[in-house]
Design brief:
It is built from 3 helices and 3 strands. The protein is 32% helix and 18% strand.
Length: 91
């Protein structure tokens, strides 16, 4: 998204570590983040989403209690979350 900020209407991070980006990179791109509490990336994603909100961005964050990375990834793409992602349109 950083290289092509006008390409996507919204983004989705499913249990991933944000790399080579800052919270500022997402202040104009709505973002949905999911993370399991037993993942290595959990604390990083909690902090990252808080910084996006502080920068004025739109971010949804769903915590998946007790899930490790494989299980969190398997449970990330619910119909409600995908509906949220695909409701955004580029103007």
């Amino acid at each position: 998204m950083k290289e092509n900020p006008n390409l996507f209407a919204a983004g989705f991070i499913a249990s991933g570590m944000p790399k080579n980006v800052t919270a500022e990179d997402f202040k104009t791109i709505p973002l949905y983040v999911t993370a399991g509490t037993n993942e290595n990336a959990y604390a990083t994603l909690v902090d990252f989403t808080a910084r996006i909100k502080e920068a004025g961005g739109t971010v949804e964050f769903t915590i998946l209690p007790g899930l490790d990375h494989p299980n969190a990834c398997d449970n990330a793409f619910s119909s409600d979350r995908l509906d949220w992602l695909f409701k955004w349109k580029k103007e």
